[in-house]
Amino acid sequence: MDAKIDYAKIYSPSKLNMFLECPKCYHFYYLDPIYSKMKSDLKKLPDNIWSFHTLGKAVHNAITLFYHSPIEERTKDSLKEFLKETWQSEVMPNKKPPLGKWGGFESIEREREAYHQALQMLANFWEMAELEIKPAYLPTRDFWRSIEDYKKLIVPLTSEFDISGKFDLVIAEDDDSLRIVDFKTGKREKDDYFQLRFYKILAELRFKKPVEKASFYFLRAGNKKEFDLTGETIEEIRKEMLARIREIKAKRIFEPRPSKLCKFCLFKSFCPEKEKVSEIVEGVKEGDYPDDLPF
Question: What DSSP designation does 185 have?
Fold first, then answer.
């Protein structure tokens, strides 16, 4: 951990959403003096590796490499080649495909099926893609150092709290405004307006330019949605962020809130409601959830 960065005072959309989903999970991740230190090790266990995370990361990273390329090299064929490069295990960087259990796949057949889904998502992206954009921000192409993106985006919300996050893409428009683009690889087409508003304030504070629009690319279905963010001011959004943060800071008892999402929680076997959790998650399929879970 970087000694110069106080991670305890930094809030992201996933961190705030985790508290809403389950206060106990939030406590495990960020506050418990014992369990919070176990995150990295728990993530490396095959039981905590999910194929939809592997698939989602690969697609996102392939698109990142696509936009890092010169315009003349941004082709449909190059997307396929980038996917070969980004089809990686998050816990075993040197593992060559097939990834098997280290990518969360039960069998070679399931992995092939997921790879074909990824190819189809990239084909859908190609049909919607804007090729000649001017990126104001792109994630690093060094995926194993993505924490550096998070560090670079840290900005103060107030004197007490900072915010940060991870953009998929920020486009510089011709009128000197910004547009936020988010690529969705999950099955559900969910409009996360809180995430958009959070990213608006983060981008405006970080890049000192107005964010007037945002775009969601739902890559499974090949749909694109546009959002007008001109009606939201930084101060209005800041007040909402502070209200959420202060609710967390005032919390003294972090109660479990069992749901189907518990299937994907690193700490489900330590939860005081683990018996109830076992009943709830029985039969839950990982493909029923998006790749951007709040943990």
Answer: -
Which phi-psi region, left, alpha or beta, contains residue 104 (left: φ > 0; alpha: ψ -120 to 50)? left
- What pLDDT is attached to residue 187? 84
**Does the residue 90 lie in any domain?**
yes
Report the predicted TM-score, pTM, of the whole model to 2 decimal places: 0.94
Q: Identify the three-state secondary structure at position 25.
A: helix
Could you report the per-residue pLDDT of 68-92, keeping only the tens digit for each? Answer: 999 999 999 999 999 999 999 999 9
Q: Round the CA-based radius of gyration of the chain to a whole number and report it.
A: 19
121-to-29, 50, 208, 218, 220 alpha-carbon distances in Å = 32, 18, 33, 9, 5
Question: Residue 62 domain-assigned?
Answer: yes
pLDDT at 191: 76
Domain range for 114 is: 44-131
Mean pLDDT of 250-270: 96
Distances (CA, A) of 52 to 47, 55, 117, 221, 266: 13, 5, 10, 16, 16
**Domains contained in the chain, number:** 1
On whether residue 169 sits in a domain, the answer given is no
Structure-block tokens of residue 268:
């489900």
